[in-house]
Amino acid sequence: MNITKTLNDKELVITLDGRLDTTTAPVLETEMQSACEGVESLVLDLKDLVYISSAGLRVILSTQKRMAKQGSMKIVHVTKAVMDIFTMTGFASIIRIEA
Fold first, then answer.
1. pLDDT in tens, the chain (99 residues)
2. Range of the domain at 46
3. Of 14, 57, 70, 87, which has the most beta carbons under 10 Å away?
4. The model's pTM
């Protein structure tokens, strides 16, 4: 998985490319912990994410909880495969997802 970060003032855009699974979730979690310092708006761009496992969902949920305390978080450009997983697990109803 590749992680690309773009910081615009207090908004951070993180683009994920590849698979977010048991192997890559710890890398993303570490990246999120440091990258979200002082950020008021977090955008996760998943246009190139082809798969997400329960480990990846856990990282997204913990990041969403953190961002709820310091600002906001949204997910954009979700692929059909990943959206199906969000829908089946109930994440689609608890996390802000935009087209």
1. 999 999 999 999 999 999 999 999 999 999 999 999 999 999 999 999 999 999 999 999 999 999 999 999 999 999 999 999 999 999 999 999 997
2. 2-98
3. 14
4. 0.93
Extract the tokens encoding 46.
Answer: 């998943």
- Length, in residues, of the chain: 99
Question: Could you tell me the end-to-end alpha-carbon distance of the chain, in angstroms, rounded to an integer?
Answer: 22
Determine the Cα–Cα distance for residues 1 and 18; give it in Å rounded to an integer.
5
Sheet harboring 97-98: ordered strands across? 2-8, 11-20, 41-52, 72-76, 97-98
Q: What is the CATH number of the domain that holds 36?
A: 3.30.750.24
- Spell out a b/e string for 26-46, using b for 16 or more CB atoms within 10 Å of the CB, else e: eebbeebeebbeebebbbbbb
Per the structure, how many domains does the chain have? 1
